[in-house]
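--- STAGE predict ---
source: upstream dedup step, 1 unique chain passed
mode: sequence only
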Amino acid sequence: MIDDTGFSVSVRSPDTTLYIHGVSIDSRTVKQDQLFIPIVRVDDGHNYVSQAFENGAVASLWQADHVPYPEGLPLIIVKDTLEALHKLAKSYRKQLSSKVVGITGSNGKTTVKDLVASILGTAYKVQKTFGNLNGEYGLPLSLLEVEEDTDIIVLEMGMSQAGEMKILSEIAKPDVAVITMIGVSHLSQLGSREGIAIAKLEILEGLNPCGAIVINGDEPLLTHGIAGKELLETLSVVRFGEAQSNDYYPLIIEQNETGLSFTLNRYSDEIPVSLLGKHNVLNALAAIAVADRFGVAEQGVREGLKQIEMTGMRMERIPSAKGFLIINDAWNASPVSMKAAIETVAVMDGFHRKILILGDMLELGEQENEFHMEIAKSIDPSTFHSVYTIGQLSSIISDTLDSLAFKGETRHFTSKDDLIEVCRQLLAKDDVVLVKGSRGLKLEDICIALSN
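--- STAGE serialize ---
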């Protein structure tokens, strides 16, 4: 029988007591004595339960509608395995005394996660989302990995559909929530930037009523969206941005080829940050606002911003064996992040030639062609030697540059191997090349090939 919680133990070994140490949804990487949860996706996880046991799983969930049940295995029968994963994470979250910082936004959420964790780590025991486990599968798994004596959990929270953020927020129950910005990613699913803002603001659903929401105060969709909600007086609203109407704003920003520095309205001295790109100043402001909420002193903020352990493929500097520099920003791409990356490389000094390798920007809906044309128009022809594009939509960038009589070389590729070969012939000592595109293209393959 399945009880009202959705769980029922199918007893296969009545004389055996099983102890579970951790959870996995991947039969290939399951560890000894973990619980395997077979998720029903394009490839049904139930097909790999036997493999999970072979690799060390001590028990497995099993969705009730998958009959017949395999014999001789310790199974926990549930109505829905994804829902069961969520319930496990919710239950564990209730047991933890840890505070939770939940971070979302169209761009910058991974960087802000890393910044927040680094700063808070100077004063607390902190755990953060590993890599990009930020969605309906990844977030509960991240929670279930948290050690019980952790002071603060920093969770990245990603979504692509309306209603998803509400689910994640009700699992994580954040004490502080951050919304970095509203862009145009997921326009194809949510229809408009207004729809994206509404979906992101669902993070309020599980937020501690005595906590804080930290938002980009330069974004009217967020400030007006917050103003239109009936918030409890106990909930603090904190704003960061470029405008002086915000609680946190920069006064002076400087950057070079190794990082940036800025002065803040709340501190007297300049703050160095070992990140590329002026856009990361706003990410740092969001992190500082969170740090203030937890009482981290200015010295701790400075230390945290110096010793950041960044998740890979975010403006990651990779020196090549031939002496040129690769900027790997290949994790994902949107019009906002693409322009920011290009502008960052454009102002980097000390390089002989600057080359762009740009891939498709996906999930942009009906305006996808227009967004790619805008990227081409934003490229300074006096700054870049060559612009190479790869994918399908990115050909619009090359075609637009050709129509604008771009003085450098433009070329579109459909093969990574062909692009890599051309780049190997071109790139030389003291050049810099930016690699940027949406996740579906996996352009990090190019970075790996060129670095050797």
